[in-house]
Design goal:
The complex is a heterodimer of chains A (492) and B (347). The two termini of chain A are 35 Å apart. Chain A is 35% helix and 25% strand. Chain A is an alpha/beta fold. In chain A, the strands form five sheets. A six-stranded mixed sheet of chain A has the order 6-9-10-3-11-12, with helices on both faces. Chain A folds into two domains: 237 residues, 3-Layer(aba) Sandwich (Rossmann fold); 235 residues, P-loop containing nucleotide triphosphate hydrolases (Rossmann fold, 3-Layer(aba) Sandwich), CATH 3.40.50. Chain A is built from 17 helices and 22 strands. Chain B has one domain: ABC transporter involved in vitamin B12 uptake, BtuC. Chain B is built from 15 helices and four strands. Chain B is globular. The two termini of chain B are 27 Å apart. The chains are: A alpha/beta (492), B mainly alpha (347). The interface between A and B is large, with 42 and 32 residues.
Chain lengths: 492, 347
């Protein structure tokens, strides 16, 4: 018997295929864990289940009824509900109203607030959530908002409950409460899909584990008959273990040095040096503080501690000073923070160099053109018309422009956050070649990547962060499983 | 989508805000009280202080004549402010209400000049407002255009349309058959209370009921509070948006009936810049610029505040030309205060 049946789900974003024909069945009263690296397609698959995204092919059947693609009301009627990573609530309304959003208890068209609060209290009591129905969501803690989001789905009679990395930002105590709620729902016959990067949670909660890799469902295993090492092998793919993507370079002088740096969720003071020609990797799950390190160095975040570039102290909270000192930064989200999508390739490529020039200096078309042709040559940038909007380029070529804007001069150190996210294999290889050339010329690189293969293949040393603390340093060619365990923080 | 204006503070820093849960339970008692008090507390306190000050210092202020004057002047801004409050709850503003007001009085004039019965003219005027509002709403919700662009364009279009039939000249209506109905609504009296005030207060009560005790009202809050959550909960977001713009238009139409009655004519020139005053009053009353939260009580206090402030300027003998300076400054101040308050509440 199956509650949910997904068949042949295909989804493409521009040139990138996110899902390549995924089949997944879920039985009533079953908790299935969905795991995979970032970008493997987990969230996309769940958004298609929820009707938030329309697939290019394939069908979703719930309770024997095929659901029209992208039809949210049909999902609601069929009892499909998703808890996303961030709670989806109206902060200015109270808990009770968020539970029955837009559908309060009424009689003859008039909202009965007493009955609505009572119904909300019943749902909260049933789930064992100690919240007042009349409390304003704005006044709740982040953890309590997550529980409210879950309760909102229970209030709607959800029979297929999806938790999409809900535990990523929950404290341990609340993870326990959430698990208790999920188990109680499972016992009432609800199908649950649980997505988490923490494998210990997956093994604790789930009956079966489905593994996605590059948009394909590569394995579905019974939890009691497998172990973490097997799942990690499924996730990262067998072939990769310890494959170098970059040849080591003899390190030179210290280029970038951190001394007792803390910022945001980065709790442990962080101290290390990156030498000329060296690549240091930062590993960790989403929310571990890995991006925080780069943002703090580049001056995008308040920090404590000392940072020096070539022995000179770097002014905190001043990206302009960081650029002047020879740092370059490639942000994680290139559409949001890296590029002006409607502006030309040329304009996007010259942001960094024009940012360092005085306001009264004349813009020079020939100098801009020289930079673009330099990038074409050096990065194999495929941009037939440098005046065309950059959104017309493929993801890989867009990413080359983000990286390339720092290559007008010779950067002293580059801070790369997910430099190959969402780009195809060919462009990936080209970016690895550029990084190889840059390190040979003496640039120091600090690299954040969710792809274990990329991280370990490129880095000379790797530091693993979890919940804002250092959980270990690894040299070249470590066992991928050891690093994954340090990242996920299982008992093993 | 169409949040050219709304984006200002709503979600400006998604990537940088992850790391700081903020020190909870460490803020002072006063700060907590400020954050927990209803958003219109500030304007309420200032209003009371102002009224007491005027009562003590200006002997003319507490006379029936003066207060009745203030009250009459209040009815039309209050009707418009009710509509603006509903719109702001969804995070939107209609900049075209002044032009719409003028165009609606011209519709009334057209009907009466054509010899239609007064009640037909009255309904036509109100419905015209509803249609004009619905057009704005449809362009925004269905075509996905920014509310700023659509209503700014409509401001110019509706104003021109009002001027076209008579080449910009007002139409005297006092001699038209049945205009007595308009005069009574816009300028009449029931005992000591003026009729437009009664109309505005009844409308306010109805709006309060709809927003508080119907699922339509609650859906308006949901759409403004979190559009995505509303959509995922099966709320017909587009329909709600169009409905709110239409209701706003109907209220402008009703205000136009009162206006025509008061000035005894249909005029293509009235209402210029009135949107500024109305929005200032609504924001002053603690309705947030970002949507999802609003207060009709606050709006009423805001309208009262601006009316009393202008009355005070009059009584003290400040030139009427200073009106814009005061209203504009109050508008900016109101938004600033809202920001500070939200900043406190957010942590």
């Amino acid at each position: 018997m199956t509650q949910v049946r997904m068949r042949g789900i295909v989804k493409r974003f521009g040139g990138v295929t996110a899902l390549r024909g995924v089949d997944l069945d879920i039985a009533p009263g079953e908790i299935i864990g969905l795991v995979g690296e970032n970008g493997s397609g987990k969230s996309t698959l769940m958004r298609i289940l929820a009707g938030d995204e329309t697939p290019d092919a394939g069908e979703v059947v719930v309770d024997g009824h095929p659901l029209p693609p992208g039809d949210v009301p049909a999902r609601l009627a069929a009892g499909v509900g998703v808890v996303f990573q961030e709670p989806n609530l109206c902060p200015e309304l109270d808990v009770a109203e968020n539970l029955f959003l837009g559908a309060c208890r009424t009689s003859r068209g008039v909202v009965r607030w007493g009955a609505t609060r009572q119904a909300a209290t019943d749902v909260l009591d049933r789930a064992g959530i100690p919240l007042r129905a009349g409390a304003k969501v704005r006044a709740l803690s982040k953890d309590d908002r997550h529980l409210t989001d879950v309760a909102h789905l229970l209030a709607r009679g959800t029979r297929v409950l999806v938790l999409d990395e809900t535990t990523a930002s929950l404290t341990d105590d609340y993870v326990r409460r959430l698990f208790a709620i999920v188990r109680a729902e499972r016992d009432r016959g609800t199908s649950v899909v649980f997505i988490s990067h923490r494998l210990n949670e997956i093994f604790e909660l789930c009956d079966r584990i489905a593994v996605l890799r590059d948009g394909e469902l590569v394995a579905v295993r019974t939890a009691s008959e497998t172990d973490e090492a097997q799942i990690i092998r499924d996730m990262v793919g067998r072939a990769l273990a310890g494959k170098a993507l970059r040849l080591p370079v003899t390190p030179g002088d210290v280029r970038l040095s951190l001394d007792g740096v803390t910022a945001g969720r980065l709790a442990d003071p962080l101290s290390f040096d990156v030498h000329a020609g060296e690549t240091v990797g930062i590993g960790g799950l989403v929310g571990s503080g890995r991006s925080t390190v780069l943002e703090a160095i580049f001056g995008l975040r308040r920090r404590t501690g000392q940072i020096t570039v070539d022995g000179r102290r770097l002014k905190p909270s001043a990206p302009r000073a960081a650029v002047a000192a020879g740092l370059g930064y490639v942000p994680e989200d290139r559409r949001e923070h890296g590029l002006a999508m409607d502006m030309s390739v040329r304009a996007n490529a010259t942001f960094a160099s024009s940012g360092q020039r005085a306001w009264t200096r004349r813009a020079s078309a020939s100098r801009d053109a020289a930079l673009v042709s330099h990038l074409r040559e050096r990065l194999a940038l495929k941009a037939p018309d440098p005046d065309a909007p950059i959104r017309t380029l493929s993801g890989g070529n867009q990413q080359k422009v983000v990286l390339g804007r720092w290559l007008g001069g010779q950067p002293r150190a580059l801070l790369l956050d997910e430099p190959t996210r969402g780009i195809d294999v060919g462009a990936k290889a080209q970016i690895y070649e550029i990084l190889q050339a840059l390190t040979e010329e003496g640039t120091a690189i600090l690299l954040v990547s969710s792809e274990l293969e990329e991280l370990l293949g490129l880095a000379d040393r790797t530091v693993v962060l979890r919940e804002g603390r250092v959980r270990g340093w690894f040299g070249r060619d470590p066992e991928p499983e050891d690093v994954a365990v340090a990242m996920a923080g299982s008992a093993a | 989508m169409n949040d050219a204006l709304r984006v200002a503070g709503a979600d400006a820093s998604p990537s940088v805000s992850v790391g700081d849960p903020g020190p909870r339970g460490r803020r002072g008692r006063l700060a907590t009280a400020v954050a927990e008090a209803p958003p219109w507390t500030g304007v309420g306190v200032v209003l009371v202080v102002m009224v007491v000050g005027l009562a003590v210092s200006q002997p003319l202020f507490l006379t029936y004549l003066n207060l009745n004057n203030v009250a009459r002047g209040l009815a039309i801004p209050l009707l418009l402010a009710i509509g603006a409050t509903l719109l702001l709850t969804t995070g939107m503003i209609d900049l075209s209400i002044g032009s719409m007001l003028a165009l609606c009085t011209m519709v009334a004039a057209g009907c009466l000049v054509a010899g239609l019965p007064a009640w037909v003219a009255l309904l036509a005027t109100i419905l015209a407002g509803g249609v004009l509002g619905a057009v704005n709403g449809a362009l925004i919700a269905k075509a996905g255009l920014s509310f700023f662009v659509v209503t700014l364009g409509a401001l110019a279009v509706y104003r021109s349309a009002a001027q076209l039939p008579t080449e910009g000249i007002s139409v005297q209506l006092s001699d038209k058959a049945g205009f007595g109905l308009f005069t009574w609504l816009g300028d009449g009296e029931i005992g000591p209370v003026s009729v437009p005030v009664v109309v505005a207060v009844l409308t306010l009560a109805l709006a309060f009921f709809v927003m508080r005790w119907t699922n339509f009202g609650r859906q308006v809050y949901a759409v403004g509070g979190n559009e995505h959550a509303a959509r995922l909960s099966g709320i017909p977001v587009e329909r709600v948006r169009i409905a709110v713009f239409s209701v706003n238009g109907l209220l402008v139409g009703l205000a136009a009936v009162l206006f025509a009655g008061r000035i005894q004519s249909g005029s293509p020139l009235i209402g210029q810049g009135i949107e500024l005053e109305v929005i200032a009053a609504v924001l002053l009353g603690g309705t947030s610029f970002l949507g999802g939260q609003s207060s009709l009580v606050g709006t009423t206090l805001g309208v009262l505040f601006i009316a009393v402030l202008q009355n005070a300027l009059n009584l003290v003998g400040v030139q009427a030309l200073w009106r814009g300076v005061v209203t504009g400054a109050v508008l900016i101040l109101a938004v600033w205060i809202d920001r500070l308050r939200r900043g406190k509440a957010a942590s």
